[in-house]
Structure of non-specific serine/threonine protein kinase:
Amino acid sequence: MGYLGELNFSALPFLTYMDLAIIAFEEKSRWIVLDVSNNKLTGRIPVEFGKLQQLELLNLSHNQFTGTIPSSIGSMDSLTTLDVSYNSLEGALPTGRLFHNASIGWFLHNKGLCGNLSGLPLCSSTPIMEHHQEGIHRLLVLAISIPVCIAIMILIFALVMILHKRKRPQLAAVTDTRDVLSVWNFDGNLVFEDITRATENFSDRYIIGSGVYGTVYKAQLLGGRLIAVKKLHPTEEMSDEKRFLSEIEVLMRIRHRSIVKLYGFCSHTRYKMRNLQRS
């Protein structure tokens, strides 16, 4: 093909379609200027433009081209001017000598072109920033949620311990109102004090019987149980502690409907008592 210098199809108001096949996209082509601006051309910019190794000016402005600028254009060493303003192009500018010193005016009013050119946004800045912000957000969520979970667990544990401690005094109070005459679990001092209180220090008002070996008193304990307390008379036989305990052991084992149940006993330096069920 011969040298054609300039091919200008700009400002054709009724041009809506142009078959660029009329241009021989071959390396030997010697187009210097190709201007198809101010038309209504649509579609993507042909990658074949990169074969025009002699082309110096390419004007595609004021059309409706979409997509990205072909990377093949970036390898055109002869190209000094590329005007793609007023289109709907997007994506990154190709790499190449042309785009290092390009004018921002060549790329104005497009859909979303980006690149390392003053006036255009950096292509990698937004994704990296969003990814960075997303990572920071996740770290903040973890940094807040983990201590909160630990604090909640500690709070729950503390509440359980507090409730447990509050129940223990209640259990102790219940224990204090237990049957003080339980044969297997009783406090001798508690029994003696309770009986002394219940009988007003063995007042005659509470006597319900008397015999050779002792006097029987009626006593109502703190828990409301009514029992008979037999206070033994001091005798030489009762001064034998070992004998007294042996008799108590025998009475504790006896179970007969005609014999009252022995709840317990109290051996004191002043008194010896048998605590019996009141029939």
Notes: The domain at 5-120 is CATH 3.80.10.10 (Leucine-rich repeat, LRR (right-handed beta-alpha superhelix)).
